[in-house]
Design goal:
Layout: E1 2-4, H1 10-17, H2 20-23, H3 25-30, E2 32-38, E3 41-50, E4 53-64, E5 67-74, H4 78-94
Antiparallel strand pairs: 1-5, 2-3, 3-4, 4-5
Length: about 100
């Protein structure tokens, strides 16, 4: 998924993306979420155990000139993933 940011340089988008950890600090603390810095963005790994099932999401947010690229893999229910993605997308659109 591409989130267009016309006129924004890669460096500007990386600077804004750095605020992601602060913006979602409470959710990260409450859940099993690991955010890892990579050269052009972040890797996000999240897990949640419900009864005998472990749901997981592996996402990558990459900053490029004029856009963020968001990719993910998951075994979690679509509605829960969509809820989390909507929050991330709103954050990225503000950058």
């Amino acid at each position: 998924m591409l989130i267009q940011k016309p006129g924004k340089s890669k460096q500007q988008l990386l600077s804004c993306l750095a605020k992601l950890k602060v913006e979602f600090k409470a959710q990260v603390a409450e859940n099993d979420i690991i955010i890892t810095d990579i050269a052009d963005g972040y890797l996000i790994n999240a897990q949640k155990k419900v009864l005998f099932l472990t749901f997981w999401v592996k996402a990558k947010i990459i900053a490029a000139n004029g856009a963020f690229e968001l990719t993910w893999e998951t075994n979690a229910p679509e509605n829960k993933v969509r809820e989390a993605l909507d929050n991330i997308i709103k954050f990225l659109e503000k950058c």
